[in-house]
């Protein structure tokens, strides 16, 4: 099991940037594929980005591709989501998630397959 704590959310103007940070604790972080998801009011949870155990494979949702970058630090057990060119439609609560997997190159887009979740951090983009 991995305990996850997100930080870095806030209010930013359209076109601006934010960096979200997910701190993990527990012995299984390096054995976990990591993901970022978001949920806006009245909408379903949406896949944002995922990164493999090795950090060498990443995948992004279509709405954020080219603007967001996910990375991980297995030494310090953390995951970062850099968000550039933010738009009002990026406004949501952002969640970090972990799933223990055997493959070091596997990524995971499906939220239902993740085992551990953080409490979320609010991102608000004003127009």
Key traits:
globular; mainly beta; 4-stranded antiparallel β-sheet; 11 strands; single chain; 127 residues
Element layout with pairings:
Elements: E1 3-7, E2 10-13, E3 18-25, E4 32-39, E5 46-51, E6 58-60, E7 68-73, E8 78-83, E9 92-100, E10 116-117, E11 121-126
Parallel strand pairs: 2-11
Antiparallel strand pairs: 1-3, 3-8, 4-5, 4-9, 5-6, 7-8, 9-10, 9-11
In short:
The protein is mostly beta strands.
Can you offer a commentary on this structure?
This protein is an all-beta fold and 127 residues long. 0% of the residues lie in helices and 50% in strands. It contains no helices and eleven strands. It has strands spanning 3-7, 10-13, 18-25, 32-39, 46-51, 58-60, 68-73, 78-83, 92-100, 116-117, 121-126. The strands form two sheets. Strands 2, 4, 5, 6, 9, 10 and 11 form a seven-stranded mixed β-sheet that branches. Strands 1-3-8-7 form a four-stranded antiparallel β-sheet, with no helix packed on it. The mean pLDDT is 96.
